Amino acid sequence: TQSESLYRWYFSENMALRNVLSLPGDSIPSPLAAPLVIVFASAGLYLLYKWLLPRPLPGIPYNAGAVKSLRGDQQALADYLSTGGEFSTWLGEQCLRMGSPVCQVFVQPFKLPWILVADFHEAQDILMRRPEFDKPQFLIDALQGLGDFHARYKMGDAFKARRQLRQDLMAPKYLNNYIGPFLHSKARDLVKLFEVKTDLANGRPFSIREDYTRTVLDVMLHHIFGEDYNESALDPQLELLRHMTPSKIPKSDVDEPVNFDEAPRSFFIELLHETAEVLERTTVSPTPRLSFWWWSKQTWYKKIVSEKDRVLKEQLRKAARNLEAGTVRSALDHMMMREQVAAEKQGREPQLFTQGMADEVGPT
Predict the structure, then answer these.
(1) Helix, strand, coil share of the chain (percent; to 5)
(2) Does position 159 have pLDDT exceeding 80, yes or no?
(3) How many other C-beta atoms lie within 10 A of the C-beta of residue 45?
């Protein structure tokens, strides 16, 4: 291993230095001993530096500057994220930048490079038909903020049991009959918001990024909890701007974007944003476990966990009542139904209110 090789190198260098400085009869004058120590230490540090530099796998394109720094591609990634970019987007751009469907990047110092595959069919084959490929430990560590859900398990019985709870949640019948109508309704609300913004902007440009984010949040929460969760991210924004008049828009150049006020969101919806940020910060950290451990001790993160637990416990109780009444609609309703069926087959009590069930709901 690298650690064993480093130890052998360090031991041999020290023994050589010790032999040189302890020649019989004290043949080396004392004024020369200190410079020799400095020379040997400098040489050793330089060799250690060269040994720790990223080592690209042969035949696969990489960023030339990355192999000249101990941090590899981390500085370039940090610069990209500081400008508002996203981690997944940066990964995708590397293959374009190097003009190859396969490339390598050095995201974690002192570890093997990540191999990026931008060819869809090859990636699909690796993910679906190659059992020798499994989840890397880095991904398992990066997803700590989402709890102990199935995507953090390597392939095996535990993974299959957890994954079984979510079966058919992306099936056409479920999407068409349950998600489709709500998505259509939210899309209409989004168009109404665009119309209101267009009238207020009076020919000036405006951003719609946050509007899409609000819409996605509403669709996601409806998918998970259904009608049992009645808070919305998009509706307050539409209501806010509907009551705004053009006179409240500051005058400016016709090409200057309009910055509309943002309606406040509920604490639970807001914490979904915070959770996403924690995940990204954990992912790009050189030490995901240590970074997440530190953040989990902070007061702001404890508040996120507390509110998340409160909402999930409430929704678990509502879903259990839906199951008992035979009105299974949302993703959580379906997951409880599958747990009940599995429990009957295995001759055990269904585990409907466990932390494992709550963790499976969180990333849905």
Answers:
(1) 65, 5, 30
(2) no
(3) 10
- pLDDT grade, residue 13 (50/70/90)? very low
Q: What is the dihedral of CA 181, 226, 331, 355, to 10 degrees?
A: 160
Backbone angles phi, psi at 62, to 5 degrees: -155, 165
Residues 273 and 213: their CA atoms lie apart, in Å, by 10
Contacts of 120 (CB under 8 A, 6+ apart): none
Q: Which pLDDT belongs to residue 16?
A: 47
Instruction: Answer for the pair 183, 219: CB distance below 8 angstroms, yes or no.
Output: yes
As a whole number of angstroms, the distance between CA 210 and CA 101 comes to 32
149 vs 281, 304, 307, 348, CA distance in Å?
A: 19, 18, 19, 21
Other Cβ atoms closer than 10 A to 218: 23
- Residue with tokens 């330089």, as numbered in its chain: 46
Closest CA to 60 of 11, 27, 100, 24: 100
pLDDT in tens, 227-244: 888 889 999 999 999 998
Model confidence band, residue 154 (pLDDT cutoffs 50, 70, 90) = confident
What is the C-alpha to C-alpha distance for residues 8 and 48, in angstroms, rounded to an integer? 12
